[in-house]
Amino acid sequence: MGKTIVITSGKGGVGKTTAVANIGSALASMDQKVVLVDADIGLRNLDVVLGLENRIVYDIVDVVEGRAKLRQALIKDKRFPNLCLLPAAQTRDKEAVSPEDMIRLCRDLREEFDFIIIDSPAGIERGFKNAVAPADLAIIVTTPEVSAVRDADRIVGLLEAMEKEESKLIVNRVRTKLVSRGDMLSVEDVLDILSIDLIGVIPEDEHIIISTNRGEPLINNNSAPAGRSFLDIARRILGEDVPINMYTEDENLFTRLKRLIGWR
Amino acid sequence: MGITVKGERNYLIIKIDGEVGEDDIENFKTQLDRNKNFFRRGKVLIKYSGESIPSSLLNRIITLLSDIEDVNIIGVFTENTMQNESSAIVIKRTLRSGQSISYNGDVVIVGDVNAGAEVVAEGDIIVLGALRGLAHAGAMGDRDATIYAMEFSPVQIRIADVIARSAGEVKNNPVPEIARIKDNGIIIESFPHGGIR
């Protein structure tokens, strides 16, 4: 039986979709069977970030409304044979699916996959409720900004009210230099406010921008600090005890040389 | 027996009789889910038939209610509070953004009050944690009410009809502090140097 994980945040733009794509492909690279479900109906992105947009035929609403079988709507990622995507519909809105539909859908997916990872939309309305309904574990993504932390706190409260007991936190886009200057909230500050378990810290990394634009997950790139951090999170999800590590860009001979001659 | 809900004038009364089991709480939850609009922006009174309500039960009911928009718990009555004038409720959890507690006595929070959360009490407010949200003590006009917190960094505090806003400064080493009215303004002093009245 698979485990259902929702990745959510309250605030938009903090990195939910990037986290789903990278944690999903990291788990798939560790021989887990993974399906990513885009619950952001009407504003779908996950397919683009994964580079699978051009392969969508059926979507989640087609499955819910009975126009397609679940198997027909699943898109296999060719780079990771264990990874599938269930895309959202773009021409409908959140009302097209109910929390009960999501629970039913994930019950079917559980039979076949080890992990179901749901990409939640921003906000606290229907789309959020749909995404959260089937989840065993909620991973809340925040950035070290007061507004994002405030929204994350609201989300934790709502999850508690729904009696979803297990929540973990990812602090994304941390800039070590700004933190040490006292110009950015530290991970400790964020944990102090939210008081939930930390499952990973992702440093600000320009590789992310490149990888999401190209539609390629970052975890294959060993020199990307964010990619390594996502791999660590996947290991923690699998129950390994991996210490939290703030990766920085590696300074090997080659990169140092590139920097010296002013070429990057 | 169990949990019943009824409307009475301007209030919604949640009546808890005798032993409450898991299925009573489940029933209450489905009732809440079905009647969300009925509860929305409502003022809720909780009446408990026993001497004092178990805090675990109270906390579960508050958690369920906090899912509903703008619902305010304005009082918790037990046999004890009916006889005894001064009363306090103890909330053993952190209040998160969007959650609120109102009570016609003193309120003790064992946990934090986060930014975006609010506590309104007719009496004193004691936060055994960090106060980062809004606290309003002496809400019915008691100017002798106080607000105490282990870590005092609220956005705004109110005592009776006096309002104080945070200066926005960040404290590096938070110490327990207490707020009270002095000469028509709110002063905040470290505790226990200021002492309680």
How does the SSE layout of this entry go?
The complex is a heterodimer of chains A (264) and B (197).
Chain A: E1 3-8, H1 16-29, E2 34-38, H2 46-50, H3 60-64, H4 70-73, E3 75-76, E4 83-86, H5 99-112, E5 115-119, H6 126-132, E6 137-142, H7 146-161, E7 167-174, H8 176-180, H9 187-194, E8 197-203, H10 206-214, H11 225-237, H12 253-260
Parallel strand pairs in A: 1-5, 1-6, 2-4, 2-5, 6-7, 7-8
Antiparallel strand pairs in A: 3-4
Chain B: E1 2-8, E2 11-17, H1 22-34, H2 36-39, E3 43-48, H3 55-65, E4 72-77, H4 79-83, E5 88-91, E6 100-103, E7 106-109, E8 118-121, E9 125-131, E10 134-137, E11 147-152, E12 156-159, E13 162-165, E14 177-182, E15 185-190
Parallel strand pairs in B: 2-3, 3-4, 5-7, 6-8, 7-9, 8-10, 9-11, 10-12
Antiparallel strand pairs in B: 1-2, 11-14, 12-13, 14-15
Provide a compact summary of the structure.
By secondary structure, chain A is an alpha/beta fold. Chain A has twelve helices and eight strands. Chain A has one domain: Rossmann fold (3-Layer(aba) Sandwich), CATH 3.40.50.300.
Can you put this structure into words, describing what you see?
The complex is a heterodimer of chains A (264) and B (197). With 264 residues, chain A is α/β, with parallel strands linked by helices. Helix content of chain A is 41%, strand content 16%. In chain A, strands 3-4-2-5-1-6-7-8 form an 8-stranded mixed sheet, sandwiched between helices. The termini of chain A are far apart. Chain B is an alpha/beta fold and 197 residues long. Helix content of chain B is 17%, strand content 40%. Chain B has 4 helices and 15 strands. The mean pLDDT of chain B is 82. The chains are: A alpha/beta (264), B alpha/beta (197).
